[in-house]
Please model this.
Amino acid sequence: MALNKEQIAQRIARELKDGYYVNLGIGIPTLVANYIPEGVNVVLQSENGLLGMGPFPFEGEEDPDLINAGKQTITTVPGSAFFDSAMSFGMIRAGKVDLTVLGAMEVADNGDIANWKIPGKMVKGMGGAMDLVAAAKNIIVAMQHTNKAGESKLLPQCTLPLTGVRCITKVVSDLGVFDITEDGFCCIEYAPGVTIEEIKAKTAGRLTIADDVKEMTF
Model:
């Protein structure tokens, strides 16, 4: 059975290491804030000007003045700091962010990512994704493995306009966890109830299966 969005975020949260500065993109990545492992202290950065982002607020406790880059209401943690976008992007461009988690419409087997525009559709702008993929030390993509038509989103090469080139290190989809290697996608974990045959059938890009591949646990 494929993972839901919460489970994808929960698995990505296990990639967080103590002391990391982490940027969470719009969509599934924002849910990672709710699953930070106990004993792991990270500082969440939002490109609209915040260090020290907490989990989503409970219903009725929202503060409309506290929002992330996706305009969702958020909470802060003790020691958090607010600043302008110039300072925020200065941090990103200077390589101060240890891990970035992004959503994607397509990922290529060489680590290219397309996540900002579908030709012919209106977009507000590319946002901070271009800077994040150019400067982050480690980028994990959270995404659905296939589109609504059932077509693979893990491809030999992206068909949509690129956000970044050869920059992705890992993909966590609803079917499994994949490292980006010289040989393409390498499946290191599969979702509970998902078969390797299903993953192969739904992955258009180059794919290898790790010798020690295992079922994902929560």
User: Anything to note?
Assistant: The chain has one domain: 5-215. Helices lie at 5-13, 85-93, 129-135, 196-201.
